[in-house]
Every structure is written in C-alpha cells, then in structure tokens.
Amino acid sequence: MQFKNTPQRYGVISAALHWLTALVVYGMFALGLWMVTLSYYDGWYHQAPEMHKSIGI
Q1: Residue 55 exposed, middle or buried by CB count within 10 Å (0-12, 13-18, 19+)
Q2: Number of domains in the chain
Q3: What are the angstrom distances between the C-alpha of 18 and each of 25, 41, 42, 53?
Q4: Which of 27, 25, 36, 20 is nearest to 49 (CA)?
Q5: Cβ–Cβ < 8 Å for 55, 28
Q6: Domain span including residue 29
Q7: What angle do CA 20, 27, 40 make, to 5 degrees?
Q8: Taking a C-beta distance cutoff of 8 angstroms, is the pair 34, 52 a contact?
Q9: Which of 14, 32, 42, 51 could disulfide-link to 38, CB 3.0 to 4.6 Å?
Q10: Per-residue pLDDT tens for 9-19?
Q11: Is 40 contained in some domain?
C-alpha cells in the first residue's frame, strides 16, 4: 500500500478522496430527495436546506 500515485496504480490518498467524494455526492442526492418530501410545517423544513448547502460547500 503506497501513498503516492504510480504509473500503474493510484495511491491510497487518491483512492480515499475518490470514494469520499462519491459518498458525499450520493448522500447529497439522498438529502435532496428527502428535502422535497418535507411540508412547510415540518421542523426540518428550514434547517435542511442550510445543512444541504453547508455540506455542498
């Protein structure tokens, strides 16, 4: 297991960042789908978009 990339293989850091980014993208998609189901009177209605924006930045 190596930290740096080589011509034959990506390093551990690159692979970890790749999978972390993939998880965040899928998580944001799921959060967005959940947000559209909220009613105006739901407690999360105003908090969820702020959470969505802060994770996306």
Answers
A1: exposed
A2: 1
A3: 11, 38, 35, 21
A4: 36
A5: yes
A6: 23-56
A7: 155
A8: no
A9: 42
A10: 899 999 999 99
A11: yes
Does the residue 36 lie in any domain?
yes
Is 8 a domain residue? no
Secondary structure of 1-57 as H, E, C letters? CCCCCCCCCCCHHHHHHHHHHHHHHHHHHHHHHHHCCCCCCCCCCCHHHHHHHHHHC
Amino acid at 50: E
Q: CB-based burial of residue 9 (10 Å sphere; 0-12 exposed, 13-18 middle, 19+ buried)?
A: exposed
pTM of the model: 0.70
